[in-house]
Amino acid sequence: MSSLIPVVDLDGLASGAPEALGRIAGDIGRAAREVGFFCVVGHGVDPALRAAVFAAADALFAWPAAQKAEIALARVGDNRGWIGLNVEALDPNARPDPKEAFNIGFDPPGGPTRNVWPDLAGFRATMEAWFDAVFRLGRDLHRAIAVDLGAPADHFADAFHTPMATLRLLHYPPVTDTGVDGLGAGAHTDYGNLTLLATDDVGGLEVRRRDGVWITPPFVADAFVVNIGDCLMRWSNDVYLSNPHRVVAPRDRIRRSVAFFLDPSPDVVVEALPSCVPPGETPRHPPITAGDHLAARLAATYAAPSP
User: What pLDDT shows up at residue 181?
Assistant: First the structure.
C-alpha cells in the first residue's frame, strides 16, 4: 500500500510568523480535507524526551499483570489508569483488541493530581513533561487550523482551558492467533479534535481513504502522525475528515506508540464555524458541549471491565 499522507514542516508555527502560518495552514487544510491525516516535523519536541517516554512506558508494561491491575482504569476511574489486554473494543462490532494501554489525563496547574502514578523512578516527571510539550504543539496546530477554516488564528484559544486531553501509552505484544481480521486495534475514528501519535518503526497503522483503500503513513524519525477527530470534523461542518483507521497486530516484535488525544474543555460548545456553512444552508450537526460529545463516544468503547 502506498502512502498518500503528507509530511508538513511546522518550522515557524510556534513563533507566529505570518508567512509560516499561512503555508502550514494550507498544507494542513489540504490533508484534513482529503485524508484526515498528516505527519509533522519541525515541531520542536525534544527527541530525548521522546526516548524517555518510550523507555518509561516499556518499564510499566513489563510489570506483571497483577501489579498493573492495582492501577487499573476500573479502579481509578475518570478514564485514567491501566487497561488490560482484550478489554477495549474500538470497533464495537469486532472482537476486543489484543493490546494494553495506560491513560494519563489533564491536571490543572497547581491543583491535586487525579492521575494514578506507578512506582517507577522518573515516570511521573517524564510523562508530565511530555504532556505539556505535546499539549503546546496541539494548541499551536489549532492556530493553523483556524486560519485554514476562515476564522481568526486565536479562534480556539479559549477551548482548552481545562481540556479533556488524554496521554495514552500503548503496547501491542506480538500475537500468533490474530483471528480472522489480524488486528491489534479495530477500525475506528478518534473522538476529539486532534490526535498526535508518536510511534516506533514497527508499523501497523492503516488509514482508510475515501475510496475504501487502506494506506499506511510514512515512518519519519521523531515525527508525529496527526489526525482529525470527530469533534473537529463536527466543528468544521464536515469540511474536515475524521477518517477510520486501524492497527494491524504485530507478529514478530512488540509495537509501541504514545498517543495524545486533544479534546476541548467539557463546557465548550461545539458548533459549526460560520465560515464552514455555505450560504442558505443549515449546519449539518446541532450544537453540543464537548463533554456530552465525548461521553457518548466513550460509552461504546469498553467491551468488558478491567481486571
Answer: 57
